[in-house]
Design brief:
alpha+beta; Glutaredoxin; 2 domains; nine-stranded antiparallel beta sheet; four-stranded mixed beta sheet
Length: 329
Amino acid sequence: MTRRLLLAVLLLAMSAAACTSGDDPPPADPPTGSSTAPTGDATTFSAQVASSDLAAGSAEAVQIGVFTSTADAGVQLLSFGDIDVAFSYLGADGSQPPAAGPSTTAGFVPAPGNDAAEGDGPTLTNPSDVAGVYVTPDVTLEEAGLWNASVTASVDGGAAVTLDAAFTVYSEHRIPAPGDEAVPTKNLTVDSKDAPAVAIDSRAQDGADVPDPELHDTTIAEALKAGHPVLVQFATPVYCVSNFCGPTVEAQEELAAEYGEAATFIHIEIWRDYDESVVNRAAADWLLRDGDLTEPWMFLIGADGTILERWGPLFDMAEVRAAIDGLPA
């Protein structure tokens, strides 16, 4: 099974950037913002589309990560501000000349716990200090096949850098999407007797109790049967390679405390047995397709069982709050 990474930068940032490690990457001097050229040049920058389930003809946001790797500073992420993005279609198999698609501007969305207003940008930051992606407004990519995102950014006020990132658009969504009926999954809960605590939440290591038990006290199936809206987060806080999962689960706990009974809040751990690559049944029902699994994902499900919104890998807390506020009373 492929454990698909959401951002190549976080694979390159050594194991220290992964949630499985308690060590931070070696610190580098932060950018001052006063330079006339970016740290590194176009050959040291890379971009990757982090969105993993885009479908032809569907209006949806595209998430993009930009990073650089140099001998002096190591791996750094591009953070804050806006970047320009121009999409082009490369054909079903990527063999045709680029055909122009939509162009737009993408704004920076930090992982929960980071403040998008903390710095001016675009600027380079250490992954241990600020992690996030750039998110476009909803765009419609009309054809299935291979697409390219051409990203242009002026880094630290210097000369513009233009980067290309190829990605796949599917003929239809492979995992549940807005408008679909939610899968009535019987996920593990704190009352599950046939699973270790780490299968309920990977933070329950070495005999520790399951954290945030209020996120693990019911199933999606039970909530749907009761006619409750559901905000469900699929993420593995300990084994996540993107450094996004822990903060997103903590943000969901914040939302649960803030909104109380406005919805049922559920966290679903990805791994039943990480060492043996055994995925929890609920995570497989929703996310495992053809041996490929991506996470984290968050879904807002209406009281009638219809998926209203989804976010992955990151989300804007203001957008999620607006969606919850928009639920019928």
